[in-house]
């Protein structure tokens, strides 16, 4: 199936804008970015930058179906890069369901839901369970779909327990289970190429720039900083910090048995380069 128009909901967001940039760089598709109407009046620099590179910015009320269906007319591939509402409590399922319903009415051909992270066992964490609930709806919808997993963002690998300033690593598990990671310079390119891969239809794509244990990432940090780091393993989850629970699940429950990297035309950016950049940022 050939696609002409790709619409990215949340395309100005942290992950979404890298996806949008990769599509604009590729240049093969007409790109539309959906934004919430409440943000219409602000001067979002990212929206302006994407528009200057050729994206059409479309403002919608996600809770007005007619509005949303109209905005999606002519879309071949809809990529949801929406985030859950951490303040208001709307889950990944709640936030994306209006989009999926409108996509069906607008005859969108393929839906790529807001996964873009770590594939985890069911019941490992409420966030990923919620994404699974939404995937079930996508499959029932009859639309074509692709799920894309690329692990933890390498530019945020410090969330896996690496404190560059203190040269201290604290791991939730014993440091032996692999954690997949990908640089933000690569994951958009994987999504672009997936549209040309017949095997991505109604399937999942699992890629990683690196798939190593925390101790292996630590070796790179030690090499780059030129010093031995203090290491603490089996760090306890601090209940009040929601992110801790998620990162503990990532460290212990990531399920990346097979990688699809060899189906793509490019080699990912080496993780050592990203770690070097992170270390340089901290040491100023
Ligand atoms: N692998 C990783 O390490 C990693 C890291 C971060 C995120 N992620 C995943 O990437 C996806 C996107 O996350 P993100 O951090 O990029 O999100 P984000 O920047 O917080 O939000 C993305 C965009 O979605 C729109 N949005 C936010 N809340 C919304 C809501 N309640 N209803 C409708 N639209 C809303 C906003 O666009 P407008 O304001 O323009 O409407 C926002 O810019 C999620 O699935 C997340 O789990 C993965």
From TrEMBL:
<dbReference type="InterPro" id="IPR008030">
    <property type="entry name" value="NmrA-like"/>
</dbReference>
<protein>
    <recommendedName>
        <fullName>NmrA-like domain-containing protein</fullName>
    </recommendedName>
</protein>
<dbReference type="InterPro" id="IPR051609">
    <property type="entry name" value="NmrA/Isoflavone_reductase-like"/>
</dbReference>
<dbReference type="InterPro" id="IPR036291">
    <property type="entry name" value="NAD(P)-bd_dom_sf"/>
</dbReference>
<dbReference type="GO" id="GO:0016491">
    <property type="term" value="F:oxidoreductase activity"/>
</dbReference>
<keyword id="KW-0560">Oxidoreductase</keyword>
<keyword id="KW-0521">NADP</keyword>
<feature type="domain" description="NmrA-like">
    <location>
        <begin position="4"/>
        <end position="231"/>
    </location>
</feature>
<dbReference type="Pfam" id="PF05368">
    <property type="entry name" value="NmrA"/>
</dbReference>
């Amino acid at each position: 199936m050939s696609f002409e128009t790709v619409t990215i909901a949340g395309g100005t967001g942290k992950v979404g804008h890298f996806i949008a940039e990769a599509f604009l760089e590729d240049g093969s598709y007409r790109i539309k970015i959906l934004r919430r109407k409440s943000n219409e009046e602000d001067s979002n620099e990212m929206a302006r930058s994407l528009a200057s590179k050729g994206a059409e910015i479309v403002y919608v009320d996600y809770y007005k179906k007619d509005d949303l269906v109209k905005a999606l007319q002519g879309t071949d591939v809809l990529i949801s890069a929406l985030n859950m509402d951490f303040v208001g409590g709307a889950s990944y399922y709640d936030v994306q369901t209006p989009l999926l319903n409108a996509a069906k009415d607008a005859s969108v051909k393929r839906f790529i839901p807001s996964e873009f992270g770590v594939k985890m066992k069911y019941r490992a964490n409420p966030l990923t369970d919620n994404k699974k609930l939404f995937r079930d709806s996508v499959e029932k919808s009859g639309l074509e779909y692709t799920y894309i997993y690329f692990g933890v963002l390498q530019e945020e690998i410090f969330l896996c327990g690496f404190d560059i300033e203190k040269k201290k690593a604290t791991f939730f598990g014993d440091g032996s289970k692999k954690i997949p990671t990908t640089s933000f310079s690569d994951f958009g390119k994987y999504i672009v190429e997936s549209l040309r891969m017949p095997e991505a239809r109604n399937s999942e794509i699992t890629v990683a720039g690196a798939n190593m244990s925390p101790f292996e990432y630590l070796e790179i940090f030690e090499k780059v900083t030129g010093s031995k780091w203090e290491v603490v393993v089996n760090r306890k989850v601090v209940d009040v910090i929601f992110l801790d629970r998620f990162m503990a699940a990532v460290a212990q429950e990531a399920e990346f048995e097979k990688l699809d990297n060899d189906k793509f035309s490019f080699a990912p950016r080496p993780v050592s380069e990203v770690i070097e950049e992170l270390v340089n940022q901290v040491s100023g």
